[in-house]
Amino acid sequence: MKFSEYAAHDGLGLAELVKKKAVTPRELVDVAISHIEKVNPAVNAVVQRSFERARKVAKGKLPAGPFAGVPFLLKDLGSFEPGVPSTLGSKICKDLILDEEGDCVKRFREAGFINLGRTNTPEFGLLPTTEPVLHGATCNPWNLEHTVGGSSGGAAAAVAAGMVPIAHGGDGGGSIRIPSSCCGVFGLKPTEGRSPVGPSGGRLWHGLAVENVISRSVRDSAAALDIVSVPQRGAPIYAPPIETPFLQQLSMPLSKLKIAVVEEPFAKAKLHIDCKDGLANAATLCEQLGHNVEFAKIDLNIEDVSSAYLVIVAGETAALLERLSHHLSKKPDPADLEPLTRLCAKGGLVFTAADYAKAVCTMDETRRKVAAFFADYDVVLTPTTALPPPKLGVLIPSEIEQRLMQLVCRVGASRLVRIAFDRMPETGFSFAPYTFLFNLTGQPAMSVPLYWNKEGLPIGSHFAGQFGDEGLLLRLAKQLEEARPWVERRPNLARGSV
């Protein structure tokens, strides 16, 4: 099989070829590996290779799942495989090997995916850009000088560059949607509790984080969501059950929707003119498709909301380091952590149980406010990001900022740590002030590639739906995909040119 034939199909399309015996899984794996070896040196999306194991799996008997024989990549965060290192993008985990298989990983395997390796992610998924010290920066296939976003940046870059048609991702504040926007691909964050986080986990980031995929086509994401959304025994949270599989829902009619266009960010940030134009473009397209579109505002105390999110993330970071100490049989050396991670962990120790409980209360209050807003609307449309994909280095702390973070951590004074966190929302949400809200509320949301700026960089359109109703979002995405197809709009890297 030639690469041009491989790249012409989405995941379900490749699985259909395998089913018809028009191509073998080994042929698909070989062409995918060949393309990865060709373009990954420029992109740095794949940071761990499992090529020989993938070839061995491809030659054996595969599960009769919907993606049987399709090449796949796992994000190197929260996707454990027995006996396989999982670095979480961190120096302290470069030798971390667990014996358990993650529930999502198991379901992907049982669906017939053949895993070729692991994709790059920022340390512990904390930044909206993929530039970890351990593995280095992942470059945007549309322009190698720019970021791919994060934290599922390696996954989005791999899909955009044509390495695989679909890849695993996770989203705790926009980590599927932000890189999907930066790379011009499709990414859906499911409803809280829709995807499993076991076998040993209960709530990722107190329910903020969920797992799914990044894909080129809407139908691949729908089929993948069917795979991961099987109820998990003992799960602390589970999304409302569905009557019709998500893939089948794509063929159901979509009624006229009432869409609220929200331009004002949910944190301190300034909207770039390119992202404003992308929002207007998406709103116009929705109107042309017959939907009722009107501009609106969600009444939120953005300082309280962003601060609550940061307190929860800080607490979860500190708790993760405690768990890693057990798995690594030693306490991680703070010098091996990136300054921002170290500061987050320090914040998690400084904040009290009362601080955390207050943050959870703010999260619950925000859920009720947003749910009340959705009583009048079916969908909310915002930009995915407030800026086009910046150049590499822009979204990581500067050298001076890193030194200040290290100083605060060394001194360890609670007052200094709290001051640092009080100031964090001023810069921490400047790039992505929209996506994290729907992690707090647990609602499904997606980034749809509908707009490219004059520099040829993709800018996603962000749609959020009612709690538990990914089906409506997927049907809307399918309608948008048919009205303005994006599958054939690819960077040169995805056409076999380096």
CATH-derived architecture of the domain at 3-260 and 483-495: Alpha-Beta Complex
Q: Strand fraction band? A: 5-15%
**Percentage of helical residues?**
40-55%
Query: Which of globular, elongated, flat, extended, rod-shaped describes the shape?
Result: globular
Identify low-pLDDT runs. none
Mean pLDDT: 95
- Along the chain, the helix and strand elements come as HHHEHEHEHEHEEHHEHEHHHEHHHEEH
Summarize the main sheet: 8 strands, mixed
Walkthrough of the structure:
The relative contact order is 0.14. The longest helix is centred in the middle third of the chain and has 27 residues, at 302-328. By secondary structure, the chain is of the alpha/beta class. It starts with a helix and ends in a 15-residue tail after the last helix. The model has no long low-confidence stretch (mean pLDDT 95). The protein has a domain at 3-260 and 483-495: Amidase signature (AS) enzymes (Alpha-Beta Complex), CATH 3.90.1300. The protein has an 8-stranded mixed beta sheet, sandwiched between helices. It has a 3-stranded mixed beta sheet with strand order 1-3-2. Helices cover 41% and strands 12% of the residues.
